[in-house]
What does this fold into?
Amino acid sequence: MEWDWNFVWEIMPTLIEGVKITILATLLGSVLAAMVGLAIALARRSPNKGLSRSVGFLAEFIRGTPLLVQLYFIFYVLPDIGILLPPLVAGVIGLGLHYGTYTAEVYRAGIDNVPRGQWEAAKACNLNARQTWTHIIMPQAIPPMIPALANYFIAMFKETPLLSAITVLELMNQAKSVANTYYRYVEPMTLVGAFFLAISLFSVVLLRWLERRYGRIEK
Amino acid sequence: MTQWSGYFGLILQGALVTIELTLMGSVLALIMAFLAGLGRLSRFFAIRALATTYIEFFRGTSIFVQLFWAYFVLPFVGISLTPLQAGVLALGLNVGAYAAEVVRGAIQSIGREQYEACTAVNLGRWQAMRHVILPQALLVMLPTFGNNAIELLKATAVVSLISLTDLTFQAQVVRSQTGNTLVPFTTILVIYFGLALIISWGVRSLERRMARGLDGVRV
It folds into this structure.
């Protein structure tokens, strides 16, 4: 099987269409995961034992089961109870929920890493709960979280090919469809691999920078 | 009324395939992890470069793309793999790359004084690694290996897309034959979660066993 550059240029526009959807899904998924993670982290800190336990178990469950099956669940089971979602929306919800359970751990660790003394000092200065969070805890907790969060968003980006299984026309699906049309797998599949590799090598550089910039609080 | 018992048998068969894949993939991942992890610490530049390339390549592209590449592209260069072989290969190499970093990190976490003590008692490089460094590093690796094994278990769902009859594939069969979506997908989610619990429980008890008698030695 020869590598055919003409074929590569011919399928490029189709693949680029797919790349756009892949990036869109990653961005939307990241935003959702950041919010879901925060919600889970806060719910797990809630003094209400029932709430924190059940959210904790649910997060544990989502983290212990495959994303692909969760996507199927959202895409195939929800319509039965009347919620019909377009594939991309279902995919973004799946990504956001799944990675939200991971980002929740990042938030938890970040918040736990703020020394007890800071909470006590905030109380001593007579700050209320909201002021403590916005002025004392968050500014110290968030910067060290950034590299870890970015790490999960990159991981999510690499999982987006799974969306092709629920008929989202992202990069992998476009590659599969051109491969099936022309019965040439080498170029489309290799290009998809090369594309993901290029983005993740680039993101490794970005991560290193983020780690240097935010990784450690000044000692 | 649907005959559920027959379908449940189908799902159990799928569970066996998933377990088989997880076990074989884990074995390959473990071998690759030690090869590449130790390779990254090698004295020779060529070996370090080879190990780094392997790790970056397999961590940089997603498991899904690697699987499709192994299954659809390799036949064109003359290597035909059965779905099971392609699945084990892709899962093992992918998770092995992540676990290799765990091996490297754990070995590097062992204090300098241990190496110096090895030199002092005149152990060779290999002897030091085998008798002093690895036994201590193994305990550091174990918890993360457990997480890697769970990631591998979750990744096995992807092989259903190259027609391997694992849990997810069988759930799809049941869905298409019965039209019911809730029961098959909920069942397999619970099974996946159960398997993940078994892995984390197994790793924890292994950890306890290996840590026995080490209290006071390790800080």
